[in-house]
Amino acid sequence: MSPKNLMRRLPRAFYEEADCAQVAQRLLGKFLVHERGNKKYVGRIVETEAYLGPHDLAAHSSKGVTARTQVMFGAAGHAYVYLIYGIHHCMNVVTGPLGSGSAVLIRAVEPIEGIELPTHGPGRLCKAMEIDRRHNGLDVCDGPLYIADAPEVAVASIVKTTRVGVDYAGVWAQKLLRFYEKDNAFVSKK
Domains of the chain, with CATH numbers? Predict the structure, then answer.
């Protein structure tokens, strides 16, 4: 599916939905777009994880408002980009009402345009699409990094499972808050 005619940015209201897990599922099938100079990277989102706020022990916001997590407690529709293991960038989009501390991690995209490197996994997709800490706090409703509308993935084609790498989070590690498109070859872990 070509995104040429579907480059309408998602409105802020899309991200303001109070149910972060619902937003995470609705992002499947949408286009993550990064326009950088004369380059344009477009990937179709095929895998996400929901982080529900301070009560979710797997969420960065569970530590409260810090220099790192301040963006998560801000307005919906902003990028929360952080460095993991000191080498990989990961991109989230803030959701919910102001102060909720919830965000959706974009875990994998299917390359559509301008992407030449692997995109299965949050660190790989950020590298392939040249997304880094400079994008932290950027408004994805009005900037060079955004999510464009496209038809949603059918509910019957969405797999719900546990999130990756959050074993430390107790009962929250077992919550079904990771979503991916069934049978898509670009999903990071099946």
Answer: 12-179 (3.10.300.10)
